[in-house]
Amino acid sequence: MKCLVTGATGFIGTALCESLAARGDDVLRAGRDPAGELPLDLAADAEPVVPPGVEVVFHLAGLAHRSAPAALHGRINHRGTVALARAAAAAGVPHFVFLSSVKALGPARGPAPRGERDGGLPRDGYGRAKAAAERELAAIAAESAMAVTVLRPALVYGPGARGNLELLSRWVAAGRPAPPSAGARSLIGRDDLVRLLRLVAAQPAAGYRCWNVTDGECYTARRLCEALARARGRALAGPALPAWAWRAAATARDILRGERPGHTAAALLGHDCYRNEAVCAATGWAPRDRFEDVAPAMVEAGLAEASGHGRFPGDGR
Q1: Is there a domain that residue 167 lies in?
Q2: Residue range 299-306: average pLDDT?
Q3: Distance CA 81, CA 105 (A)
Q4: Rounded to two decimals, what is the model's pTM?
Q5: Looking at the DSSP assignment, which residues form a beta bridge with residue 157?
Q6: Residue 48 falls within a domain, yes or no?
Q7: How many domains, in total, are found in the chain?
Q8: Which residue has the higher pLDDT, 229 or 302?
């Protein structure tokens, strides 16, 4: 296939482009990187240009910084996505694949894993922009001949991952107290997500489809730290601090950083789990990895050796 990939130099995009090229697909890398084949700036006012002959657009690019202004998320993650999709439809692209996020479903109301329709109003600009883009993509699919597939991945792990996973790895490497077994969240391995992206693009598609993507597990912060510690050949520092102590420290951190109180505690100890049965049933895809399988490669890639050991885990998506 002739594929256009935005976000081609990112954590997921790099792996996707390598996988597509290895399969023999023709890959056009779009973005602000001058090394790419197609210039694209989602924050600019200029209309995106999609060249003729493209069979699938993988739209992975976007603003991932949750603390960025809501207006900037709206400009890049919402309106930039819609503009690219309209340009793709006008160019006759048969299939548009959008990498959204489970954050489009808003905050969880309890511990039960959520399906695609179990959403609420997102609290932050990132989630609201992703949800708004999804709604307009559904309209584009209804009014054009272009199929639209939306994948909502949970937090993605793999060698080179950043955000919360990098900070947890630093925490473990520094021998700091272990978190309690409280809360749980869904994750997805990068290799499994890349396999799914390739699979949905290769299968016949029509209309609009939207699926949550996870590896089927729900992980506590303690389970993640235990896996990272085992990958280093060590045990977690103990005993674990109680949940109230972590919540108090997390709240103090939020206040000091000018963030919404509770943000860090929710990332570490809250519930954020999702169901993946729909995408598995519709596509035949099944996740192969669990975090414990990939943790050694993450450590080997130098994730735990990064600087900033004194930071408190809780940043990132």
Answers
A1: no
A2: 64
A3: 18
A4: 0.91
A5: 189
A6: yes
A7: 1
A8: 229
